[in-house]
Amino acid sequence: MSAVSRCSWCGDVPEYVRYHDEEWGVPSHDDRHLFEMLILEGAQAGLSWITILRKREAYREAFDGFDAERIARYTPARIERLMRNERIVRNRAKLEAAVKNARATLAVRDELGSLAAYLWSFVDGAPVRNRPRTMADVPPRSEASDRMSRALKKRGFGFVGSTICYAFMQATGMVDDHVATCFRAAGGPAAGSAQKSMK
Fold it and tell me: I need a surface site. Which of 41, 44, 116, 161 has the fewest CB within 10 A?
């Protein structure tokens, strides 16, 4: 791993390296993948991202493969079952927000056709490619993430503060913050699209 220059945040932790190389900063226009990342970024609030990465498969199982239509129908009884699932983060507010977000996602789809079209509108449909010198130069939020956060909250989404939205934008390739010395910044290959590599 040391022979390849990467963004410093991933270190040599295998899960982080794979996520960095294959997904982080790769543009995704897949509604299910975008919804998944919105839920996972919200679940990460107050925790380390490696914690969520290691629970990702458990989340997929617990949340019906991040099928928004199914999650939108979750009842309080289903939330109670999730609260007993030791393989995911058992935070009631975050679990309830996932259901709210599923319902809000369906409303966006009904109104605008797709979640992807709506979310990508905050970057005018094209990735914002930054080339910071170091990770210290990467901001925790941006004007676009501020706008996204306000708009999502108005639509009933939860756990979508600006910092969470910025991390979501990085994760789904709306923002590419690979540092200038990273092999990915130089056009290094990702192992397919984000939605393909993570299925």
Answer: 161
Active site residue 143: no
* Residue 16 falls in the annotated catalytic set: no
C-alpha 183: how far from chain center: 22
Give the residue among 114, 124, 100 at the shortest CA–CA distance from 32: 114
Task: Kindly report the pTM of this predicted structure.
Answer: 0.93
Q: Which of 23, 41, 59, 74 is catalytic?
A: 41
CATH (residue range 16-197): 1.10.340.30
Q: Using alpha carbons, list the distances in angstroms from residue 34 to 11, 40, 192.
A: 25, 10, 16
Q: Decide if 72 contacts 102 (C-beta within 8 A).
A: yes
pLDDT tens, position by position, 139-194 = 999 999 999 999 999 999 999 999 999 999 999 999 999 999 999 997 777 754 44
> Cα 88 vs. chain centroid, distance in angstroms?
16
19 a catalytic residue: yes
